[in-house]
């Protein structure tokens, strides 16, 4: 059995077993209210508590899940789980209040005001309000208007939501404190999730950075708004980094501690140094050119399964769009690549082709075919429609395809690959959607 299959089977088993336990606890607890509204509200509360623990595990960056499934796909799951938490967080108190209002024969608003005077209930309502704020800034329209740094900062509110949710659960959840077994179950569930979060989001990164002591070795402008940062440190070969992966980068003293950005390695790791290349879009990336040589670097990772290890065959197609060329360039340099390689690099103009000289040299060394596709997208210039993509690469269905670029471009390419019936296991995409 493959590692992805084992990981997916473990996830499915975890979800099914826990849902069975939750329904058993709900039934054992007996009627939680005097009407259907109250019963539904209490059941939704159990779902909500479990969904929150799942969210914690999805953002804990568990190495097994990252290697088997990929951080990008896990982040997509986190997004959908987040909307599930949102609806449960809205519906749970709504049904509970409706249940009490119907039982007491008073208005919804009057019941809401009465219940909100109880501290545990008030904390739960505050948690719901914070969830609404986080979801509001995660909607695609709002997300486009926020910098990555601002979006990430707002998502830190989720840790406050966790604390408020646990307190609310302790004091208000009758199904949580029904007996010693239910208490052991819920505390065990939360302990497992929070321990995973603390271990892989704090303890492991702190130990790793204390060991490797990374510093800025050089800052090299690549173009007007693109810069490469070379990083050195101790025993970097022990990081186990691979071409195509990314780190979460912090630069203490240069940016606030909470500002973190996912930047891919733009060169294959050699055990002595790492290189990231970024376009000046957000606050952190725009300020990289001002980093001082010798500045401390805090890196969390490596993450991602966008590596040659995922390849099914020997023929490869690498597709890059804009600054998405960075992991593609590192893959092209990977000694493990081999085989027949084609590279498609989509940019508006030749001047926007970052790292083009390096790509050309690597293509010559490896005997790869490099095509730079320029020009604005228009009805007459759409290189990634199914027909045009097939014309560029006639044997595309026999190749592993690696795609990295802006979300609209990557989505369009993935649609074309599905239309061309490229087998799903041969498609590898990096979308750079990252949970905080």
From TrEMBL:
Transmembrane feature ranges: 12-31, 43-60, 80-101, 121-141, 153-171, 183-204
InterPro entries xrefs: FAD-bd_8, FAD-bd_FR_type, Fe3_Rdtase_TM_dom, FNR_nucleotide-bd, MRET, OxRdtase_FAD/NAD-bd, Riboflavin_synthase-like_b-brl
Gene3D superfamilies named among the record's database cross-references: Nucleotide-binding domain of ferredoxin-NADP reductase (FNR) module, Translation factors
Location relative to the cell: Membrane
Membrane association type: Multi-pass membrane protein
Known cofactor(s): FAD
Sorted UniProt keywords: 2Fe-2S, FAD, Flavoprotein, Iron, Iron-sulfur, Membrane, Metal-binding, Oxidoreductase, Transmembrane, Transmembrane helix
Location of the FAD-binding FR-type domain: 209-309
Record's protein name: Ferric reductase-like transmembrane domain-containing protein
Organism from which the protein derives: Actinoplanes subglobosus
Species lineage: Bacteria, Bacillati, Actinomycetota, Actinomycetes, Micromonosporales
